[in-house]
């Protein structure tokens, strides 16, 4: 039973029959009724004698676990006593990856508040929608990002108080002391995460203290297996659950440290940062690894030992390119904002080529047909998952699309083999049905990306009177290659020689870039929308 004073969120949880079924069938996932995830992770490291180990690093200095805990305690006192916030209040956080954003998130959750981290690139209109949805009254914002949030405040009547990180940091420094961790219930909501919107209108996802701590004891312990000596870097924003786990929470499980870069990474600056700080673990998206491989010389990152790829499907071509370049097997994984983090993955020594991996201990996954029955091995179906985390949308009828009979349906098409390895096919809406054949767009992308001329590509279906749909590829060329009809035909033949002939792209369009979210996910829905609204004049197909 929740103990939070502000009941806004708890009064807007899904109905009992629409909630996911949760299972805690491993000893490490069985948690007490009263638990505070930040106190368990951060205070716990100090209590175990690791207070003097370095926790947070940036280009200006380092903070130990003890120093971070002190700042978090003081920040919590300012939020609760100076600003009068109460448990269950939502706090919007806006900033890039760095000490201010990390400490603010930890302070909010430790104080029993609900952290609502937002992507730095969001504009006033998008921020207004988040504020209105969550009825958010208080916000902390990086001073350089204040303009858009100030503009949102003029339209979002709920937002009463907007504080810049610089002023907040000064208030914390003057604070008379710290605040004890809130005595939160495991069912108290710790965070509200807005989906990245690759499939349409973003949704507000809720996760409790129990959810987050259970996730910290699942994939990080059974697959990642980091150590206290690890130094972690990465590109995903802390506002994205992939980044929140990988670049803040999961390192605390091991007592490791995190290095935050100065501004958004490029492939070149990521490589240089890894070499300079001696980073051992990297988190980023498949596209970024592919770009890094193109500019990483032999021995450029000698300390790097683990590389985690998530956020979108990992093409096998990218996995092999990275391994050839660095000697490191990419650690792939699929997760979802709705499930908090990764639930299918395999450690590097258990990788099976082409597969994401097997279900993470503590979770259960199935591939099912249209009627919800288990599909035989090797047959494409919908992925269904249950575990210690699950989907809870804030006041959203789409809850019933995601959770069916207690199982979570992330919206992905998969094949599972007889050994329990899962092979990603596509998002449900990325399956292309052409002349009666099912074609998974990511499979064609993986094949086409192996062509020497391709920097990156996307594959979608285009409406066609004769075939229903035809496979269309949008290709960004590598430097030095020219847009020619001969190259289009060459790419088509390249795919024909490696995949079933009906899968080849009957249309190839060269483009200068592809739409992606701030987290690096390819936004195929935008490409489909652009295709739909394009001129309806007859096109001549290339064959």
Characterization of the model:
The chain has 543 residues and is an alpha/beta fold. The chain is globular. Among the domains are: 36-47 and 57-183, 3-Layer(aba) Sandwich (Rossmann fold); 435-533, GMP Synthetase, Chain A, domain 3, CATH 3.30.300.30. The protein has 16 helices and 26 strands. 31% of the residues lie in helices and 23% in strands. Helix 11 (286-293) links the parallel strand 11 (281-284) and strand 12. A nine-stranded mixed sheet has the order 2-1-10-9-11-12-13-14-15, sandwiched between helices.
Distance between the termini: 63 Å
Measured by DSSP, the beta-strand proportion falls in: 15-25%
Largest sheet strand order: 2-1-10-9-11-12-13-14-15
The major sheet is characterized as: 9 strands, mixed
Determine the structural class based on helices, strands and strand pairing: alpha/beta
| Count of individual beta strands | 26
């Amino acid at each position: 039973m929740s103990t939070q004073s502000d009941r806004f969120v708890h009064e807007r949880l899904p109905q009992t029959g629409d909630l996911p079924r949760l299972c805690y069938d491993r000893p490490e996932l069985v948690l007490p009724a009263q638990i505070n995830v930040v106190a368990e992770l951060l205070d716990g490291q100090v209590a175990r004698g690791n207070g003097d180990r370095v926790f947070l690093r940036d280009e200006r200095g380092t903070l130990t676990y003890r120093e971070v805990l002190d700042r978090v305690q003081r920040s919590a006192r300012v939020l609760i006593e100076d600003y009068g916030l109460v448990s269950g209040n939502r706090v919007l956080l806006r900033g890039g990856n760095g000490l201010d954003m990390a400490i603010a998130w930890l302070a909010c959750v430790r104080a029993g508040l609900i952290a609502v981290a937002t992507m730095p690139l969001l504009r006033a209109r998008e921020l207004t929608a988040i504020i209105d949805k969550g009825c958010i009254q208080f916000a902390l914002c990086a001073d350089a990002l204040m303009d858009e949030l100030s503009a949102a405040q003029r339209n979002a009547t709920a937002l009463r108080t907007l504080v810049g990180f610089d002023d907040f940091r000064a208030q914390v420094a003057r604070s008379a002391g710290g605040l004890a961790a809130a005595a939160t219930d495991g069912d108290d909501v710790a965070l509200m995460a807005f989906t990245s919107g690759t499939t349409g209108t973003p949704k507000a996802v809720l996760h409790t203290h129990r959810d987050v701590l259970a996730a910290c004891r699942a994939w990080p312990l059974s697959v990642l297996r980091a150590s206290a000596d690890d130094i972690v870097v990465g590109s995903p924003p802390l506002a994205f659950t992939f980044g929140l786990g990988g670049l803040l929470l999961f390192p605390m499980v091991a007592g490791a440290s995190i290095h935050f870069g100065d501004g958004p990474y490029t492939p070149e600056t990521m490589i240089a940062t890894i070499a300079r700080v001696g980073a051992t673990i990297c988190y980023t998206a498949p596209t970024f690894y592919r770009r890094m491989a193109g500019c990483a010389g032999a021995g450029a990152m000698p300390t790097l030992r683990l590389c985690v790829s998530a956020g979108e499907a990992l093409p096998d071509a990218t996995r092999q390119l990275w391994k050839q370049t660095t000697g490191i097997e990419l650690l792939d994984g699929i997760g979802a904002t709705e499930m908090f983090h990764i639930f299918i993955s395999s450690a590097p020594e258990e990788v099976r080529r082409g597969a994401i991996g097997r279900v993470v201990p503590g979770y259960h996954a199935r591939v099912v047909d249209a009627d919800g029955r288990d599909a035989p091995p090797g047959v494409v179906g919908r992925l269904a998952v249950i575990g210690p985390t699950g989907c809870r949308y804030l006041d959203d009828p789409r809850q019933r699309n995601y959770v069916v009979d207690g199982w979570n349906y992330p919206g992905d098409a998969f094949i599972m083999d007889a050994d329990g390895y899962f092979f990603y096919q596509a998002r449900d809406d990325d399956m292309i049905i052409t002349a009666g054949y099912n074609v998974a767009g990511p499979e064609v992308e993986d094949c086409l990306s192996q062509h020497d001329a391709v920097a990156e590509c996307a594959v979608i279906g285009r409406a066609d009177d004769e075939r229903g749909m035809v496979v269309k590829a949008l290709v960004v060329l590598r430097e030095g290659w020219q847009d020619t009809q001969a190259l289009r035909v060459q790419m088509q033949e390249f795919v024909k020689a490696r995949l079933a002939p009906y899968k080849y792209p009957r249309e190839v369009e060269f483009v200068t870039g592809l739409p992606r979210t701030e987290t690096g996910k390819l936004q195929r829905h935008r490409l489909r929308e652009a295709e739909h609204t394009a001129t309806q004049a007859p096109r001549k197909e290339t064959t």
